Every structure is written in C-alpha cells, then in structure tokens.
Amino acid sequence: MELSNLKPAKGSTHSEKRIGRGEGSGHGGTSTRGHKGAKSRSGYSRKIGFEGGQMPLQRRVPKFGFTSPNRVEFKGINIDALQQLVDEKRVKDTITHEDLVNNGLISKKDLVKILGRGELTAKLNVTAHKFSKTAVAAIEAKGGTVTTL
Fold it and tell me: How far apart are CA 125 and CA 110, in angstroms?
C-alpha cells in the first residue's frame, strides 16, 4: 500500500452533491429552491388537491343528488347464468348462496338478487336474498321452488 493507490472505503463518499452546505459546494444560497414563495420555505408540504390558488376541481364541480347512507346493494344474477351452471354440471338441482360463491359468481359477503334475463330449462330450487317477479315466474314455471333468505 502506497500513497498512490489509496482510495476511500466503499460507501464513505457521497455521489450526490449536498445542498445547503455553503457556496463552495455549488448548491449554497437558495439551496436549489429558487427565490421566495411557499416552496422555498422549510416545512412546506402541498395540500392534496391544491392548484396554486386556483379554485380546486373538487370545489368547482357542483354537488348533485342524494346518497342514502342506508342503501342496500344487491349483486344481480340472471337466470341464464344459473342455467349455464347446470349445463356445465357445476350444480345439480339446488342453488344456494354457497354454490354461487364456490363458482365465483359472487363474493362471500354479497347479497344476491336473481333476475329474469334468459331462459331456464332445468327444474331448480333456488335460495337467494331477493327475486324479481320475472325470475320467480320462470323458476316456478319449470316446477322449481324459490326460497328467500
């Protein structure tokens, strides 16, 4: 080891210039922040949605309508989807909430409403939270039963 081949330990030198450490660093004075204004001050953090004093979008767009806090959301499943399950032999003659979850049509916490689109050819015993009138008519026309949870 000689003076000609000495070098600093790995990781001990800074690859980036340190700002705000005097004029000799080349980044003294305003420390790359420009002159004046909120962004040049310490402690500055931009508020979410701030548009430089312009009226923000969430305040420009008007409020509209009414949203009920007690709304109950149902996942609609049509009769043709139930018929497809029977055709693919994934269910026999009884369809429950658990069967729909297992076949990926709904998630565990979903409330289900059976809707009347499509044609039913199989006799089914369906259990769900709600039914449309057309769905009840179609299921009962084929000799099936409807059970509300």
Answer: 20
Residue 113 to residue 81: CA distance in whole angstroms: 12
Tokens of 65: 């309508």
Residue 19: pLDDT band with limits 50, 70, 90: confident
120-148 pLDDT, tens per residue? 888 889 999 999 999 999 999 988 899 99
Q: How many Å apart are CA 58 and CA 49, to the nearest integer?
A: 8
Instruction: Enter the pTM of the model.
Output: 0.57
Q: Which residues contact 86 (CB under 8 A, 6 or more apart)?
A: 92, 122, 124
Contacts 24+ apart (CB under 8 A), 86-90: 86/122, 86/124
